Amino acid sequence: MLENRLKEFIKLTEDIDCYQEVLKKTEIEIIKFFLTSPKYRVTHEYDLPFDYSGISIIEENSYQLKDILFINLADLMEETYTGNSVATYMSGCGLFHHTLMDELDYIVRDIYFDSEKVVKLRDELSEKDDEELIDTICDMSIDNTYFILKITDYFKKINFIEIYKNSIDDTLKELLREKQEREDILKKEQEELLYYTNMFESFQKKYKLILKKRVTAEDINRLEKILKKDTFYAQEFLKCANLYTTNSIDNYSFSRGAVKRINHIVSSFL
Predict the structure, then answer these.
(1) 265 touches 227 (CB < 8 A)
(2) 146 φ, ψ to 5°?
(3) What is residue 48's DSSP assignment?
């Protein structure tokens, strides 16, 4: 079974439509990086005598398209630090600083996993087999083929301007979509905060309560009878409490113990 499933995914790594989709989205991610990410460099100025790792710092100047358009894409990615690093567990050099080329493997894998045909096949097989197993097999199909190497070899043959011309319009659309998505999320969060702020105040007025700025489990114990009687407010109170553990609104906040107590009360009548 495992071998048959692997063969099905390997077929997709050889599928031209799947390859073109992944390549296009990879190009978009690379262009987005140079348009939006800060410019990093690794300096060894602050190295200790026993460690030559260096540190990644942000340069004052961002990337200028005119300076990179005609550089070989693979070379450019090899020279471009992302600001990410991993532990080497080696004496004398504890950190390895990632370049964009180092992260190409992760970028391609993520895009491949979410590509149209792969998602469709994963959904079909997940109905028959364990989902984690399918994800593992999907990952193996990348490791057992030349899928990522094919993209890397293509990047070695072209300059940055080639992918820029191919994908800049799609990149700008993607950046606009992401911006709109962030604004929508922020708007929803603000609306939720306003709703629960008003709800919290009305709850206090309705029952003539004066709660401390930091609501504790002991405070909830005193409110238990009210919350059990007013199930709607109890459920909304729980949502409010969850929200207020990460956002202090009008200086109110809930301890995690308070949230746990409300959750226990709510679960008793649901």
Answers:
(1) yes
(2) -100, 25
(3) B
